[in-house]
Design brief:
Elements: H1 2-22, E1 26-31, E2 35-40, H2 41-88
Antiparallel strand pairs: 1-2
């Protein structure tokens, strides 16, 4: 399995290096008068990818937190309903099977 991951890492690294070499042309970024710079094309694409990954991770974490809260509330309702069910049950009758001598 480690060899499989190693091969994937090598392929991914090869992709990154070749992508960077083929897209090294400078791209001018201008935003009103605040930003006016030139960066390689691959840096712009990787930055956009990284920002997308961070936003997706954050939204996923928020959703996981919300779902965990919902699960906790539902588990509490289940516990309360089980207690209520047990309170309404008739206690079991224990028979004494001993015969007098």
């Amino acid at each position: 399995m480690k060899i499989f991951y190693l091969i994937l890492v090598i392929l991914f690294t090869f992709f990154i290096v070749t992508f960077s070499q083929f897209n090294a042309a400078p791209v001018r970024i201008t935003y009103f008068e605040f930003v006016d710079t030139q960066v390689p094309g691959y840096m712009l694409i990787f930055a956009a990818l990284l920002i997308g990954v961070i936003i997706t991770w954050f939204l996923g974490a928020v959703e996981r937190f919300r779902l965990n809260r919902t699960i906790s509330k539902q588990n509490k309702v289940i516990r309360d309903l089980r207690k209520e069910l047990r309170a309404g049950e008739v206690p079991p009758i224990i028979e004494d099977n001993k015969k007098p001598l």
